[in-house]
Amino acid sequence: MHASWASPLAIRPAHDARNSEESLPRGRHPVAFLSTSATPSHCSHAEAPKVIFVPTAQRRRTTSHCKAAIVEGGPRVSPAHDLRTSEERVYDVVLRQAALMAKRVSQSSPALIEVEKDDVSSSELTLNFTPEISPQILEEAYTRCGEVCAEYAKTFYLGTMLMTPERQRAIWAIYVWCRRTDELVDGPNAPHITPAALNRWEQRLEDLFRGRPYDMLDAALADTVAMFPIDIQPFRDMIEGMRMDLIKTRYENFDELYLYCYYVAGTVGLMSVPVMGIDPLSRATTESIYNAALALGIANQLTNILRDVGEDARRGRIYLPKDELEQFGLRENDVFAGKVTDNWRAFMKDQIRRARMFFDEAERGVTHLDKDSRWPVWASLILYRQILDAIEANDYDNFTKRAYVGKWKKLISLPAAYGLALLPPARHSSLGRKTATCT
Ligand SMILES: CC(C)=CCC/C(C)=C/CC/C(C)=C/CC/C(C)=C/[C@@H]1[C@@H](COP(=O)(O)OP(=O)(O)O)[C@]1(C)CC/C=C(\C)CC/C=C(\C)CCC=C(C)C
């Protein structure tokens, strides 16, 4: 995730923001201004998450070998003595998101649902706050989100064209928030970003979930989270990933890396599913579809990491699990030296194999999404997956060569994705299936 975009998305320093052209005019609708000394007054995120016992059999197969203890760099919400694996902690979030969505489906009412605080949501900040924003401003806000999306993620923007207008613009709003969040640590202002700045960004997130957006782009997301059963936790977790990126430059084992990948990319899957919707014909459990979405985010991020090894090393960062490097006789100096040896090839083969397992898991989930939402997901999956092929084609030289998917391959992928998107949900897929009582 190395942004090379220009700065229109950059978050302005708090004192500038009042004059921002994107700030919502005062008086017409609620506006919450950032204060540089902002201390969250409603820190529900500081509460420890509810621990849900997950039977081993229900856990994700692909990562069940990762049993190392949680180490530094974990989320603020978790006590240091939390001995669950990253996989278990993330699974807890998956269960809550799935329960929230299942509840919405079972109520099958277009009206906003009341979420019982102790029930499924990580907080009370879900769905209960409809921002008072004039339709015209909201229209402009969404249009701006669409423009940003079209500018920074052309293929993906194209893929959203088949979605219903409500879903399309909601996905744009989520995309823009994710981009801006990523931009904090990867964009032009990154050297000036401090943990305090991330705290303010989180405060702003809490405000928008309470129906008090700070600027136009936030207003679009505030509207989106009021319309769809979207929980705040994945958004908080993405900010947590950015905190991690500020302080952490090494990963001891896959358990640590898994948590990072969840924070910065798995969260995107969890944010997107409630908007993309589930095919009414699907017999899969909501939870298993969320798991597939999580897997796609993890797969994408692992691929990103494998593609960018050289670039990251030049920034003094190694996102590869140290213990796995050692198993192949490699040390961090080998990564900095950037020499493609047989050991390196063997190590990379193993990493690519694991990334493909996550893609496989994600694939099984895509057909269960609402039919109009599948195309962009297949497109992003096929395109990103091909980066792994490109690394192989480069003979595993990800130090000096950038693996990329050529224009023609990209063009061919779009109709291929379209074809796959037409397939109905597999009746006998290996995803978790609803029991008779739940259908
Ligand atoms: C339909 C669809 C693909 C929806 C997702 C739209 C969305 C909200 C995207 C936000 C992406 C974003 C800006 C994330 C911020 C953190 C980040 C930059 C993560 C990396 C993305 C690629 O980064 P980058 O643009 O820098 O890469 P390049 O260098 O340009 O190659 C990530 C690698 C992660 C992106 C993660 C996803 C797109 C997750 C997708 C999962 C789903 C949409 C769930 C699908 C559901 C099922 C059931 C499979």
UniProtKB/TrEMBL annotation:
One of its GO terms (molecular function) is geranylgeranyl diphosphate synthase activity. Keywords: Carotenoid biosynthesis, Isoprene biosynthesis, Transferase. It is an enzyme of class 2 (transferase). Transmembrane segments: none annotated. The keyword Iron-sulfur does not apply. CDD domains: Trans_IPPS_HH (cd00683). It catalyses: 2 (2E,6E,10E)-geranylgeranyl diphosphate = 15-cis-phytoene + 2 diphosphate. One of its GO terms (biological process) is carotenoid biosynthetic process. Gene3D superfamilies: Farnesyl Diphosphate Synthase. The keyword Transferase applies. GO terms for cellular component: plastid. It holds the Pfam family SQS_PSY. Its EC number is 2.5.1.32. Belongs to the phytoene/squalene synthase family. This is 15-cis-phytoene synthase.
